[in-house]
Amino acid sequence: MTNIAVTTWSLEQTAPTDLLPASAPEGDVRIVRAEVPSPEFNRFLYASVGGDIRWTDRLGWTYARWREYLERPAVETWVAYDRGTPAGYIELEAQDDGVVEIVYFGLIPAFRGRRIGGHLLSYGTARAWDLADRWPGLAPTKRVWVHTCSEDGEHAMDNYQRRGFVLFDTKVEEEPALTAPGPWPGAFPA
């Protein structure tokens, strides 16, 4: 199997005032928290958003593994809907000492390039900053961080930086060159 060099960038905000919100897109775009843990729905979002950009680490998760992850305290999924249709999502996970990671963020390919991503990232980052308000006993957020890589969407890094995230680490590692799995064969143009 062929390997490729993949660059991973880690970015952070260290105060809620670091967030530089994008304007809301035109039309009927809403962002709603998926409050009921649903392995089927989260796997759909994961495969649909990441299928063309080689998100593969969770494809082998069992139903029980998805449920276990989603039922953990302070794990939240926020979903953007365009006229009632899921367009993308942002997944938050509380970590130790007031740190919140944006574990996954992205849009289904048909919804990219329509200004939904900046709005969703802005909204989701604001929810990371106020996560403790929804989870009694959770330490107030002191830091929000995210990582993106050279395999992610071409506008990912720019979107993070335009929202006020600052680069704090860069790593380059060799990884197997994988074919984008897509949610099903033929879903994405070649």
Automatic annotation (TrEMBL):
Enzyme class of the recorded protein, top EC level: transferase
EC number of the protein: 2.3.-.-
Record bears the keyword Acyltransferase: yes
Domain N-acetyltransferase: 29-181
Keywords from the UniProt entry: Acyltransferase, Transferase
Classification via InterPro entries: Acyl_CoA_acyltransferase, GNAT_dom
GO molecular function: acyltransferase activity
Protein name in the entry: GNAT family N-acetyltransferase
Organism whose genome encodes this protein: Streptomyces andamanensis
